[in-house]
């Protein structure tokens, strides 16, 4: 499966990764006139840039307002026709069963893009990831690794590589 790695020199570079992922989805939709769900797992320490990357994606999908961290709400929804974008932060999740009570399976429809921080907290109840993103500190900068884990993820990262490089 495809794997990409980049050094992110600042916050703007992190936002650009998210924005370019959104560009890929818009391009694929325009080409195929069909939606395909996208599930992205975001891994990294506190402050590594997971929410910043998601902010870039949500704005790249067309959202004009604030993009806040769902640390206390577990999920922030964004209706961005023809897409539904959901940003999950499972850091404070006490028990994965809590996701069942909020109807977690309904969030993984064909018109949904789900960015999930701390996915290990929802193990066994989340849809499989299409892309796994790992972010680590490298001094004042960040290293990001994007790894496809499905054919959908492979397709997105193939196109992403052409746009981002």
Verbal overview:
Helices cover 32% and strands 29% of the residues. The protein has 165 residues and is of the alpha/beta class. A seven-stranded mixed β-sheet has the order 1-7-6-2-5-4-3. Helix 1 (11-32) crosses helix 2 and helix 1 (11-32) packs across helix 4 (151-164). It is globular. The model has no long low-confidence stretch (mean pLDDT 91).
What is the molecular shape?
Answer: globular
CATH fold label: Rossmann fold
User: In total, how many beta strands?
Assistant: 7
Biggest sheet, open or closed, and with what strands and sense? 7 strands, mixed
Give the total of domains.
Answer: 1
Question: What's the CATH architecture?
Answer: 3-Layer(aba) Sandwich
Q: Strand content of the residues, in percent?
A: 25-35%
Compute the number of helices: 4
Kindly report the spatial arrangement of strands forming the biggest sheet.
1-7-6-2-5-4-3
User: Distance N terminus to C terminus?
Assistant: 19 Å
Give the H and E element order: EHEHEEHEEEH
| Level-1 CATH class name | Alpha Beta
Structure classification: alpha/beta
Give the proportion of residues in helices.
25-40%
Q: Quote the average pLDDT.
A: 91
**What is the radius of gyration?**
15 Å
Residue windows where pLDDT falls under 50 for at least 5 positions: none
Superfamily (CATH H level) name:
P-loop containing nucleotide triphosphate hydrolases
